[in-house]
Amino acid sequence: MMRAWILPISLVLCGVLVATTSAVRGLPGAAIALLPAFVLLAALHSPLAFPRSISAAEARRRSAVDGRPIVYWRAGCKYCLRLRFRLGRGARRLHWVDIWRDPAAATAVRAVNGGNETVPTVMVAGRPHVNPDPAWVRGQLPPSP
User: Fold this and answer.
1) 20, containing H or E segment
2) Pairing with 41, which of 18, 69, 75, 84 sits 20 to 30 Å away (CA)?
3) What is the pTM of this model?
4) Domain 51-139 sits in which CATH superfamily?
5) Is 135 exposed, middle or buried (0-12, 13-18, 19+ CB in 10 A)?
6) CB atoms within 10 A of CB 51
7) Residue 100 burial class via C-beta count within 10 angstroms: exposed 0-12, middle 13-18, buried 19 and up
8) Which residues pair with 98 in a beta bridge?
9) Which value, to the nearest 10 degrees, does the dihedral of the CA atoms of residues 12, 13, 15, 19 take?
10) What CA–CA distance (Å, rounded) separates 107 from 124?
11) Domain boundaries of the chain, sorted by first residue
12) Cβ atoms 100, 4 nearer than 8 A
């Protein structure tokens, strides 16, 4: 759980350090601009930017029932972030599994990626797709009710 927050916490601490240094040097405008930028970066790279993560077992169960793809991701991954934001509201219709929170998910991702934890790995009908195009993923979603 803590691993997912290391990058965001580091970004906030760096932002505080840079903003404090700028303020001490007599550049309050730079400090005011930099701190929110670092906080925004931290928020984007945190688990908060993604729909609620579920376990790999629960995702497989739900996917078998509703046919929705499963996305294996981790916080701090720029490709996961790109997929999340390019999907927009459609991202909430996928089953998201954080591989840093679920060891079984990390094992599943390594099994289909030659031992690497390459994310995002999207499972559609039991077939893995590594870092797929967001438009393609959107096309794999079942129609909205």
Assistant:
1) helix 3-24
2) 69
3) 0.74
4) Glutaredoxin (3.40.30.10)
5) exposed
6) 16
7) buried
8) 73
9) 140
10) 17
11) 3-48, 51-139
12) yes
